[in-house]
Amino acid sequence: MQNSVTPTHCPYCALQCGMNLTPAPDGSVEVTERADFPVNRGALCGKGRTAPEVLSSRVRLTSPLVRSDEGTLVPASWEDALDRIAGALSAVRAEHGPDGVGVFGGGGLTNEKAYTLGKFARVVLGTSQIDYNGRFCMSSAAGAGIKAFGLDRGLPFPLEDIPRTGCVILVGSNPAETMPPSLRYFNELRENGGKLIVVDPRRTRTAEQADLHLAPRPGTDLALALGMLHLVVAEGRVDEEYVRRRTAGWEQARAVAMAHWPEYVERITGVSVPELREAVRMFCEPEAAMVLTARGPEQQSKGTDTVGAWINLCLATGRAGRPLSGYGCLTGQGNGQGGREHGQKADQLPGYRKLDDPAARRHVAEVWGVDPDSLPGPGRSAYELLDALGTDIRALLLMGSNPVVSAPRAAHIEERIRSLDFLAVCDVVLSETAALADVVLPVTQWAEETGTTTNLEGRVLLRRQALTPPEGVRSDLYVLHELAARFGVEKGFPVDPEEVFEELRRASAGGPADYSGITYRRLAEENGVFWPCPAPDEAGSDLAEGEDAVLDAPPADDPAGEAPAGLITAPAVHPGTPRLFLDRFATPDGRARFVPVPHRPSAEEPDEEYPVLLTTGRVVSQYQSGAQTRRVEELNNAAPGPFVELHPRLAARLGAAEGDPVAVVSRRGRAVAPARITTAIRPDTVFMPFHWPGAGRANTLTNPALDPTSRMPEFKVCAVRLEAVASGRVTGD
Ligand code: SF4
Counting CB atoms within 10 angstroms of each CB, which of 153, 164, 266, 682 has the fewest? Predict the structure, then answer.
């Protein structure tokens, strides 16, 4: 393994860029271009390029830590640390029952880890109290996708389709900062004559490149989609034949849209009627078009409905389930997609099965060798679970997450974490949350272990181990294996990721996210496989390998999916499914569902006391809670701390100059950061990135109001007031 080139993938975002890693004799690791991986074709952003810095033992944990009698974290042996965790979790279970123990995972965990964590919670601990930070990321898009299409997969088509469509509406997405190598798809779209529309309250780097930038007031993009749908109807642009043949529920959705006439929508959103008309024209004139959403519309207390309104626009215009057309979600976290498919979500079993479905429970229980009745039911969603810490949840096992920085209403969540009887954290660095733990376990990271992830396209990938982990570091799978053994469960928790994946294949077989036809060997040979990919038996074929079978899915050599289904001959091995819904949607009758979704205000609207809107997001040189990227010198120099982005008019009212400290105050707390004054933001809105802890922690301010379907908190909009720290002036003076 040493000194050889290993093709693998970046540890950070959902693009999962391919890269080559070469360890050098001095212990450093060189990142080089991996041109054979089609998603990024060799391009990397600064985060990917510098990712090996976090592998260095200079910045990471290399020994278990336990809390001493004096209250400090001190090094300990693995035996001691694991015994303490098992002892504490057992004691809590004995006193408070299985649900007294919570488990919290992360969207960065590999499929194997997410699967094993969910199994560990339900089989070993017997707790229903498990969820993960991916709930904060794209769960509203998942909820809307399931309602409309019967299935949630980030993109129902590969990124390579984008340059060949006619128009893309990017809603609340800023890939120029969040996943820069993906920008080339949008640039190629425009070079080919296609149009790019960006919907964002800020003129972001992505919006600067758009043909049309619509800047609605935060929390009003649902109304914007309704206004566009209204115009689609009024201008006779509905694809009546498609609506009749492939959808259900149009009349109710139409009635809601007709109540949102353009002038009314202009008053709600601030987007003018001519801009709305221009957007409709750009979207409807080409033969094919797409809508892609990201955290902007999704992280709202009405996120599922907001995404649903954009899906309705696609359905009414016949832009879903057709070649080069469709709705998709640009998933954020590295394994945001796979992480939500294999059982670390409160309501799910592997294969994207529902925990409250008796048939799903039977299938998974059989794979696990347990009684279906022994599996607990659905538990609390991520915020609700964190909010219950120290009340009926007395102990928490946390893997790959840093909620002290990333959870909404973060000061309250920090307090809840501090009130636990016992906290165990597995991480690579001493994050702000790990620093509060009773036991911290140092675990391997991406380049030191093998595992699979599923990128935003639904492409399952093999991340290969490229180097030997430092002394003292063990894998998350080892941790779960050892803890299970301490609870008397000797079998079913292997340390070898491929062994876990083989079981995951069986557990997912027949489920919506069916991985049963995927093997490590295929992943290595084919550079990834799109799910669903049933094993030959699951695909309805009992042919021997090498014989031909008739498949529903378009084969890899028919990228536009234009060959009629049912006439495709292919080898007995399922080719995977790059494009979904081309013949039918995943609903019982094969039709997509319109969901009537009227506009409603955000949970918190501005008032006299809190007259300004706050929206939060990311910057190019930091990733999520910053636990890793804040430890990389180059990234830290480029983005050293938080800031408050505000319009010159708001700054003038405050008397704040560029760089002056500004306090942002919400009903949940106060954060202070330097002013960054720009006309690129609406005058009624301020923006803060959320990557930092401490005084400038944006999530001190954010509102945990939850979407009723996805239980996604409303990170993207809340009411605040501003105070100029130097002069003491506040907004509204
Ligand atoms: Fe890594 Fe995402 Fe950057 Fe690609 S775009 S290098 S996956 S952080």
Answer: 164
